[in-house]
Amino acid sequence: xxxxxxxxxxxxxxxxxxxxxxxxxxxxxxxxxxxxxxxxxxxxxxxxxxxxxxxxxxxxxxxxxxxxxxxxxxxxxxxxxxxxxxxxxxxxxxxxxxxxxxxxxxxxxxxxxxxxxxxxxxxxxxxxxxxxxxxxxxxxxxxxxxxxxxxxxxxxxxxxxxxxxxxxxxxxxxxxxxxxxxxxxxxxxxxxxxxxxxxxxxxxxxxxxxxxxxxxxxxxxxxxxxxxxxxxxxxxxxxxxxxxxxxxxxxxxxxxxxxxxxxxxxxxxxxxxxxxxxxxxxxxxxxxxxxxxxxxxxxxxxxxxxxxxxxxxxxxxxxxxxxxxxxxxxxxxxxxxxxxxxxxxxxxxxxxxxxxxxxxxxxxxxxxxxxxxxxxxxxxxxxxxxxxxx
Length: 390
Prior knowledge:
The protein is α/β, with parallel strands linked by helices. The chain is built from 17 helices and nine strands.
């Protein structure tokens, strides 16, 4: 007995839509794989189906948030093989710049920066994932100004305090002092090129021209976000703009309230990552799943911030970092926190309902805290405190 197997036609394989969906799925699987390799991933909270025109808002803990989001939420939100529409991500605009991998990471060796500088991922992320940039009309990275004025004198583009590090780097490399913008557009200067400046730092005619172009582009970015939601799409934004530097939730960047007002989403779905490194093995990474809410009609910033705080998962690490005392008193505290989280509708590990599990996890967290950098412990304590503000 023979079975006929249908094969895709050459025309369908070459269909740009099919190719984009294939890249979309591949990127999602890669991100999820990274998250599960780096963390013990757990989505906590009730899952709700997405309705068209949903604005998804997520707090921003670290650069691992997007992989965690994909690992914990992707199948629920998107399904496999185009069951639902693609989720659009509003992302930092420098992701689209050539040399992102060379300029952005801190403490990257200079040799690695030189190697990575020619690489760019903006095209793939913009077309296939898809990611939409959010530009600020008042802030830009030096690489953007210099790339727009390659032949201009460096002294005309940058004030002395910004130009001097480039001169010093050239001397360290045994090169002549750079004169033109084009002289420093290379991997050897990638970390310096990624310095952020505002419109009071960069003045003069060339900079003024770049600021005008950037303002126009920023307005176009905003319209693009609005159009996704108004067109019935799903849009994920990080209202804080950048990962929290100290564990705090908020403040929100400018423009969130305007986006809610102009896009008029049918619902706002809050998500909130929380990382708990206090324990053996890989750190735990939780993605709090909130309840869809109606779009706020007044004081959207305050309401979005409230949703993010309420959706932040309770973790054992937060409690261990925030409260001292004997193990018995700490266990009673965690029991009280779990009961409070249940009453508030705050996500938490279901196993924390069990006394034996609470006792085991607390012992692991307390032991780990003694060997963990104080800044990490302080960050967990601040996250606990911030989630309960307001």
